[in-house]
Amino acid sequence: MTEDKVGVDEDDQDEHFEHFKIEVDQGQTIMRIDKFLFDKLPNVSRNRISTAAKNGSVIVNQSPVKANYKVKPEDVISIVFPHPKREFELIAEDIPIDVIYEDDAVMVINKPANFVVHPGHGNSTGTLVNALLFHFGNLPKNPTSDTSYPGLVHRIDKDTTGLLLIAKTEIALTKMAAHFFNRTIDRHYVALVWGDMENNSGTIEGHIGRSPADRKRMAVFPNGEYGKHAVTHYEVMERLGYVTLIKCKLDTGRTHQIRVHLMHIGHPIFGDPRYGGDRIVKGTTFSKYKQFIDNCFTILPRQALHAKTLGFEHPNTGQFMKFESELPEDMVQVLEKWRVYTKSQGISA
Protein backbone atom coordinates (compact mmCIF):
# COMPACT_ATOMS: atom_id res chain seq x y z
CA MET A 1 0.00 0.00 0.00
CA THR A 2 1.25 3.45 -0.86
CA GLU A 3 0.14 6.64 0.82
CA ASP A 4 0.29 10.06 -0.78
CA LYS A 5 -0.97 13.34 0.62
CA VAL A 6 -2.49 15.71 -1.91
CA GLY A 7 -3.21 19.41 -1.40
CA VAL A 8 -5.94 21.35 -3.20
CA ASP A 9 -5.60 25.05 -4.05
CA GLU A 10 -7.79 27.94 -2.91
CA ASP A 11 -10.16 27.71 -5.86
CA ASP A 12 -11.40 24.41 -4.48
CA GLN A 13 -12.98 25.93 -1.38
CA ASP A 14 -11.36 25.43 2.03
CA GLU A 15 -11.01 21.66 1.63
CA HIS A 16 -7.77 19.76 1.81
CA PHE A 17 -7.39 16.05 1.39
CA GLU A 18 -5.58 12.96 2.53
CA HIS A 19 -5.22 10.54 -0.36
CA PHE A 20 -4.60 6.79 0.01
CA LYS A 21 -3.88 4.50 -2.92
CA ILE A 22 -4.07 0.72 -2.67
CA GLU A 23 -3.19 -1.84 -5.29
CA VAL A 24 -5.01 -5.05 -4.34
CA ASP A 25 -2.92 -8.22 -4.23
CA GLN A 26 -3.54 -11.01 -6.74
CA GLY A 27 -4.50 -13.39 -3.96
CA GLN A 28 -7.10 -11.10 -2.36
CA THR A 29 -10.42 -12.78 -1.54
CA ILE A 30 -13.57 -10.94 -2.63
CA MET A 31 -15.04 -8.74 0.13
CA ARG A 32 -16.94 -5.47 0.60
CA ILE A 33 -14.75 -2.46 0.04
CA ASP A 34 -15.73 -0.74 3.29
CA LYS A 35 -14.53 -3.77 5.29
CA PHE A 36 -11.42 -4.09 3.12
CA LEU A 37 -10.45 -0.46 3.67
CA PHE A 38 -11.28 -0.62 7.38
CA ASP A 39 -8.81 -3.49 7.69
CA LYS A 40 -6.16 -1.72 5.60
CA LEU A 41 -6.28 1.86 6.86
CA PRO A 42 -5.11 2.55 10.40
CA ASN A 43 -7.12 4.93 12.57
CA VAL A 44 -9.92 5.30 10.00
CA SER A 45 -13.44 4.41 11.11
CA ARG A 46 -15.83 2.37 8.98
CA ASN A 47 -18.33 5.21 9.16
CA ARG A 48 -15.76 7.61 7.70
CA ILE A 49 -15.13 5.16 4.88
CA SER A 50 -18.88 4.80 4.19
CA THR A 51 -19.29 8.58 4.13
CA ALA A 52 -16.43 8.90 1.64
CA ALA A 53 -18.05 6.28 -0.59
CA LYS A 54 -21.41 8.06 -0.40
CA ASN A 55 -19.70 11.29 -1.49
CA GLY A 56 -18.05 9.60 -4.49
CA SER A 57 -14.59 9.73 -2.93
CA VAL A 58 -13.84 6.02 -3.09
CA ILE A 59 -12.49 5.31 -6.57
CA VAL A 60 -11.83 1.86 -8.02
CA ASN A 61 -10.13 1.63 -11.40
CA GLN A 62 -10.97 5.30 -12.11
CA SER A 63 -14.69 5.01 -11.24
CA PRO A 64 -16.54 5.92 -8.01
CA VAL A 65 -18.02 2.97 -6.12
CA LYS A 66 -20.40 2.49 -3.22
CA ALA A 67 -19.55 0.98 0.16
CA ASN A 68 -20.93 -2.43 -0.85
CA TYR A 69 -18.62 -2.78 -3.87
CA LYS A 70 -16.81 -6.14 -3.84
CA VAL A 71 -13.03 -5.76 -4.01
CA LYS A 72 -11.33 -8.03 -6.54
CA PRO A 73 -7.68 -8.97 -7.09
CA GLU A 74 -5.59 -6.29 -8.85
CA ASP A 75 -8.17 -3.55 -8.27
CA VAL A 76 -6.57 -0.11 -7.92
CA ILE A 77 -8.31 1.79 -5.13
CA SER A 78 -8.03 5.49 -4.32
CA ILE A 79 -9.78 7.00 -1.32
CA VAL A 80 -9.80 10.66 -0.39
CA PHE A 81 -10.63 12.02 3.05
CA PRO A 82 -10.90 15.71 3.92
CA HIS A 83 -8.38 16.77 6.50
CA PRO A 84 -9.81 18.36 9.63
CA LYS A 85 -10.16 22.10 9.06
CA ARG A 86 -6.83 23.77 9.64
CA GLU A 87 -6.98 26.84 11.80
CA PHE A 88 -5.15 29.81 10.34
CA GLU A 89 -4.06 32.76 12.41
CA LEU A 90 -5.92 35.64 10.79
CA ILE A 91 -3.62 38.62 10.45
CA ALA A 92 -4.84 42.10 9.50
CA GLU A 93 -3.02 43.33 6.39
CA ASP A 94 -3.10 46.70 4.66
CA ILE A 95 -4.32 45.53 1.26
CA PRO A 96 -6.45 47.91 -0.86
CA ILE A 97 -10.13 47.01 -1.29
CA ASP A 98 -12.47 48.39 -3.95
CA VAL A 99 -15.63 49.07 -1.93
CA ILE A 100 -18.66 49.70 -4.16
CA TYR A 101 -21.14 50.22 -1.32
CA GLU A 102 -21.04 50.24 2.47
CA ASP A 103 -23.41 50.90 5.36
CA ASP A 104 -23.66 49.69 8.95
CA ALA A 105 -24.77 46.19 7.95
CA VAL A 106 -23.23 45.23 4.60
CA MET A 107 -20.51 45.99 2.08
CA VAL A 108 -20.29 45.24 -1.61
CA ILE A 109 -16.73 44.75 -2.89
CA ASN A 110 -15.39 44.57 -6.43
CA LYS A 111 -12.74 41.82 -6.39
CA PRO A 112 -9.85 41.93 -8.90
CA ALA A 113 -8.23 38.89 -10.48
CA ASN A 114 -5.42 37.04 -8.71
CA PHE A 115 -6.90 37.83 -5.30
CA VAL A 116 -7.62 34.91 -2.98
CA VAL A 117 -10.80 35.35 -0.94
CA HIS A 118 -9.87 33.52 2.25
CA PRO A 119 -6.83 31.82 3.79
CA GLY A 120 -6.04 28.25 2.84
CA HIS A 121 -3.09 25.94 2.41
CA GLY A 122 -0.50 27.95 0.49
CA ASN A 123 -2.49 31.17 0.96
CA SER A 124 -2.33 31.96 4.66
CA THR A 125 -1.83 35.69 4.06
CA GLY A 126 -2.57 38.26 1.38
CA THR A 127 -6.24 37.35 1.12
CA LEU A 128 -9.42 39.40 1.10
CA VAL A 129 -10.15 38.28 4.66
CA ASN A 130 -6.78 39.67 5.81
CA ALA A 131 -7.64 42.95 4.10
CA LEU A 132 -11.12 43.08 5.63
CA LEU A 133 -9.69 42.68 9.12
CA PHE A 134 -7.34 45.61 8.56
CA HIS A 135 -9.91 47.99 7.07
CA PHE A 136 -12.97 47.08 9.13
CA GLY A 137 -11.76 45.40 12.31
CA ASN A 138 -13.73 42.52 13.77
CA LEU A 139 -16.34 41.04 11.45
CA PRO A 140 -18.83 38.31 12.37
CA LYS A 141 -18.51 34.63 11.55
CA ASN A 142 -21.52 32.52 10.68
CA PRO A 143 -22.60 31.05 14.04
CA THR A 144 -24.02 27.95 12.31
CA SER A 145 -20.79 27.07 10.49
CA ASP A 146 -17.35 26.15 11.81
CA THR A 147 -15.80 26.68 8.37
CA SER A 148 -16.81 30.30 7.83
CA TYR A 149 -14.50 33.30 7.73
CA PRO A 150 -15.17 36.77 9.10
CA GLY A 151 -17.73 38.69 7.05
CA LEU A 152 -17.89 36.28 4.13
CA VAL A 153 -21.38 35.49 2.89
CA HIS A 154 -20.16 33.78 -0.28
CA ARG A 155 -17.01 33.59 -2.38
CA ILE A 156 -15.71 33.57 -5.94
CA ASP A 157 -12.60 31.92 -7.35
CA LYS A 158 -9.16 33.52 -7.12
CA ASP A 159 -9.05 34.53 -10.80
CA THR A 160 -12.74 35.35 -11.21
CA THR A 161 -13.43 39.07 -10.90
CA GLY A 162 -16.47 40.97 -9.69
CA LEU A 163 -18.91 41.59 -6.89
CA LEU A 164 -18.80 40.08 -3.43
CA LEU A 165 -21.20 40.70 -0.54
CA ILE A 166 -19.71 41.17 2.94
CA ALA A 167 -21.75 41.18 6.16
CA LYS A 168 -20.68 43.53 8.96
CA THR A 169 -22.99 42.24 11.72
CA GLU A 170 -23.99 38.79 12.90
CA ILE A 171 -27.64 39.49 12.09
CA ALA A 172 -26.76 40.58 8.57
CA LEU A 173 -24.55 37.53 8.06
CA THR A 174 -27.25 35.14 9.26
CA LYS A 175 -29.94 36.73 7.08
CA MET A 176 -27.79 36.95 3.97
CA ALA A 177 -26.57 33.38 4.36
CA ALA A 178 -30.23 32.30 4.48
CA HIS A 179 -30.94 34.28 1.28
CA PHE A 180 -28.11 32.47 -0.49
CA PHE A 181 -29.34 29.13 0.78
CA ASN A 182 -32.88 29.87 -0.39
CA ARG A 183 -31.65 31.12 -3.83
CA THR A 184 -33.17 34.59 -3.37
CA ILE A 185 -29.96 36.42 -4.25
CA ASP A 186 -29.85 37.81 -7.80
CA ARG A 187 -26.44 36.99 -9.29
CA HIS A 188 -25.33 37.26 -12.91
CA TYR A 189 -21.93 36.47 -14.36
CA VAL A 190 -20.49 37.38 -17.75
CA ALA A 191 -18.25 34.83 -19.48
CA LEU A 192 -16.43 34.61 -22.79
CA VAL A 193 -16.61 31.00 -23.94
CA TRP A 194 -15.11 29.01 -26.76
CA GLY A 195 -17.35 28.18 -29.71
CA ASP A 196 -20.55 29.51 -31.20
CA MET A 197 -23.32 28.61 -28.74
CA GLU A 198 -25.99 26.53 -30.44
CA ASN A 199 -28.91 28.31 -28.74
CA ASN A 200 -29.50 31.91 -27.68
CA SER A 201 -30.40 30.72 -24.19
CA GLY A 202 -30.50 27.50 -22.24
CA THR A 203 -30.11 25.69 -18.95
CA ILE A 204 -27.33 23.33 -17.92
CA GLU A 205 -28.15 20.76 -15.26
CA GLY A 206 -25.92 18.08 -13.83
CA HIS A 207 -24.62 17.08 -10.42
CA ILE A 208 -21.15 18.45 -9.71
CA GLY A 209 -18.56 16.56 -7.71
CA ARG A 210 -14.83 16.01 -7.65
CA SER A 211 -13.36 14.35 -10.70
CA PRO A 212 -12.24 10.77 -10.03
CA ALA A 213 -9.30 11.36 -12.36
CA ASP A 214 -8.09 14.68 -10.89
CA ARG A 215 -9.04 15.85 -7.39
CA LYS A 216 -8.23 19.46 -8.30
CA ARG A 217 -11.00 19.47 -10.90
CA MET A 218 -14.73 19.21 -10.60
CA ALA A 219 -16.78 17.05 -12.96
CA VAL A 220 -20.43 16.70 -14.00
CA PHE A 221 -22.29 13.49 -13.18
CA PRO A 222 -25.46 13.63 -15.32
CA ASN A 223 -27.15 10.64 -13.69
CA GLY A 224 -27.04 12.35 -10.29
CA GLU A 225 -25.52 9.39 -8.46
CA TYR A 226 -22.58 11.46 -7.25
CA GLY A 227 -21.96 15.13 -6.54
CA LYS A 228 -24.47 17.85 -5.72
CA HIS A 229 -27.37 19.16 -7.78
CA ALA A 230 -26.41 22.20 -9.86
CA VAL A 231 -28.30 24.42 -12.31
CA THR A 232 -26.82 27.15 -14.53
CA HIS A 233 -28.87 29.31 -16.92
CA TYR A 234 -27.18 31.14 -19.79
CA GLU A 235 -28.09 33.75 -22.38
CA VAL A 236 -26.05 34.84 -25.41
CA MET A 237 -25.00 38.49 -25.32
CA GLU A 238 -22.71 38.66 -28.36
CA ARG A 239 -21.51 36.18 -31.00
CA LEU A 240 -17.92 36.60 -32.14
CA GLY A 241 -17.39 33.70 -34.50
CA TYR A 242 -15.14 31.28 -32.64
CA VAL A 243 -16.13 32.61 -29.21
CA THR A 244 -19.37 33.77 -27.59
CA LEU A 245 -20.04 36.31 -24.84
CA ILE A 246 -22.74 35.01 -22.51
CA LYS A 247 -24.54 35.92 -19.31
CA CYS A 248 -24.98 33.23 -16.65
CA LYS A 249 -27.40 33.00 -13.74
CA LEU A 250 -26.92 30.49 -10.95
CA ASP A 251 -29.68 28.58 -9.20
CA THR A 252 -27.05 26.85 -7.07
CA GLY A 253 -23.55 27.73 -5.93
CA ARG A 254 -21.25 24.75 -6.39
CA THR A 255 -17.46 24.86 -6.59
CA HIS A 256 -16.42 25.99 -10.12
CA GLN A 257 -20.05 25.61 -11.20
CA ILE A 258 -20.08 27.86 -14.27
CA ARG A 259 -16.64 26.73 -15.38
CA VAL A 260 -17.34 23.00 -15.18
CA HIS A 261 -20.90 23.23 -16.56
CA LEU A 262 -19.71 25.14 -19.64
CA MET A 263 -16.86 22.70 -20.20
CA HIS A 264 -19.37 19.86 -19.91
CA ILE A 265 -21.41 21.18 -22.85
CA GLY A 266 -18.30 21.75 -24.96
CA HIS A 267 -17.87 25.50 -24.42
CA PRO A 268 -15.08 25.98 -21.86
CA ILE A 269 -14.45 29.51 -20.66
CA PHE A 270 -11.80 31.31 -22.71
CA GLY A 271 -8.44 31.19 -20.95
CA ASP A 272 -9.55 28.80 -18.19
CA PRO A 273 -6.46 26.72 -17.38
CA ARG A 274 -8.33 24.24 -15.19
CA TYR A 275 -11.01 23.26 -17.68
CA GLY A 276 -9.31 23.34 -21.07
CA GLY A 277 -9.95 26.94 -22.07
CA ASP A 278 -6.28 27.94 -22.24
CA ARG A 279 -5.71 26.35 -25.65
CA ILE A 280 -7.28 26.73 -29.09
CA VAL A 281 -10.65 24.97 -28.98
CA LYS A 282 -12.27 26.52 -32.07
CA GLY A 283 -10.78 28.22 -35.11
CA THR A 284 -8.30 27.77 -37.90
CA THR A 285 -4.85 26.20 -38.02
CA PHE A 286 -3.18 29.29 -39.50
CA SER A 287 -0.12 30.54 -37.62
CA LYS A 288 -1.51 34.10 -37.59
CA TYR A 289 -4.61 32.85 -35.77
CA LYS A 290 -2.45 31.05 -33.22
CA GLN A 291 -0.48 34.25 -32.65
CA PHE A 292 -3.74 36.15 -32.23
CA ILE A 293 -4.92 33.68 -29.57
CA ASP A 294 -1.54 33.78 -27.78
CA ASN A 295 -1.80 37.58 -27.66
CA CYS A 296 -5.26 37.27 -26.13
CA PHE A 297 -3.97 34.84 -23.49
CA THR A 298 -1.15 37.25 -22.66
CA ILE A 299 -3.66 40.03 -22.03
CA LEU A 300 -6.05 37.72 -20.17
CA PRO A 301 -4.02 34.98 -18.42
CA ARG A 302 -7.04 33.59 -16.55
CA GLN A 303 -10.61 32.47 -17.08
CA ALA A 304 -12.75 35.20 -18.71
CA LEU A 305 -15.39 35.17 -15.98
CA HIS A 306 -16.78 38.20 -14.16
CA ALA A 307 -19.41 38.46 -11.40
CA LYS A 308 -21.21 41.44 -12.89
CA THR A 309 -24.55 41.77 -11.08
CA LEU A 310 -25.47 41.33 -7.43
CA GLY A 311 -28.95 41.99 -6.09
CA PHE A 312 -30.27 41.30 -2.59
CA GLU A 313 -32.80 42.35 0.02
CA HIS A 314 -31.10 44.51 2.63
CA PRO A 315 -31.00 42.62 5.96
CA ASN A 316 -32.11 45.64 8.00
CA THR A 317 -34.43 47.66 5.77
CA GLY A 318 -35.84 44.94 3.53
CA GLN A 319 -35.15 47.18 0.51
CA PHE A 320 -34.01 45.39 -2.64
CA MET A 321 -30.60 46.65 -3.70
CA LYS A 322 -28.85 45.89 -6.97
CA PHE A 323 -25.25 46.58 -8.00
CA GLU A 324 -23.41 46.34 -11.32
CA SER A 325 -19.69 46.02 -11.96
CA GLU A 326 -18.07 46.98 -15.25
CA LEU A 327 -16.05 44.31 -17.02
CA PRO A 328 -12.37 44.41 -16.02
CA GLU A 329 -9.90 45.91 -18.45
CA ASP A 330 -8.34 42.59 -19.47
CA MET A 331 -11.72 41.22 -20.59
CA VAL A 332 -12.58 44.48 -22.34
CA GLN A 333 -9.33 44.42 -24.32
CA VAL A 334 -9.76 40.80 -25.39
CA LEU A 335 -13.37 41.38 -26.42
CA GLU A 336 -12.31 44.30 -28.57
CA LYS A 337 -9.58 42.20 -30.17
CA TRP A 338 -12.14 39.54 -31.04
CA ARG A 339 -14.50 42.13 -32.54
CA VAL A 340 -11.73 43.48 -34.75
CA TYR A 341 -10.60 39.98 -35.74
CA THR A 342 -14.14 38.83 -36.56
CA LYS A 343 -14.72 41.87 -38.75
CA SER A 344 -11.36 41.61 -40.51
CA GLN A 345 -11.90 37.93 -41.34
CA GLY A 346 -15.47 38.42 -42.50
CA ILE A 347 -16.65 35.87 -39.91
CA SER A 348 -20.39 35.90 -39.37
CA ALA A 349 -21.02 36.95 -35.79
Would you give an account of this structure?
Helix 1 (33-40) packs across helix 2 (46-54). Strands 8, 9, 10, 11, 12, 15, 16, 17 and 18 form a 9-stranded mixed sheet that branches. With 349 residues, this protein is an alpha+beta fold. It contains 7 helices and 18 strands.
Report the order of strands and helices: EEEHHEEEEEEHEHEEEEEEHHEEH
The fold-level CATH name of the largest domain is: Pseudouridine synthase
What best-fitting shape do the alpha-carbon axes yield? globular
What is the CATH homology-level superfamily of the largest domain? Pseudouridine synthase
Total beta strand runs: 18
Described by its quaternary structure, the protein is single chain
Features:
single chain, 349 residues, alpha+beta, Structural Genomics Hypothetical 15.5 Kd Protein In mrcA-pckA Intergenic Region, Chain A, Pseudouridine synthase, 3 domains, nine-stranded mixed sheet, 18 strands, globular, disordered N terminus
Could you give a quick summary of the protein structure above?
The chain is 21% helix and 28% strand.
Topology:
Elements: E1 2-6, E2 17-23, E3 31-32, H1 33-40, H2 46-54, E4 58-60, E5 63-64, E6 70-71, E7 76-82, E8 99-102, E9 106-111, H3 128-136, E10 161-167, H4 170-181, E11 186-194, E12 201-205, E13 207-210, E14 218-221, E15 231-240, E16 243-250, H5 257-264, H6 287-299, E17 305-313, E18 320-324, H7 329-344
Helix pairs in contact: 1-2
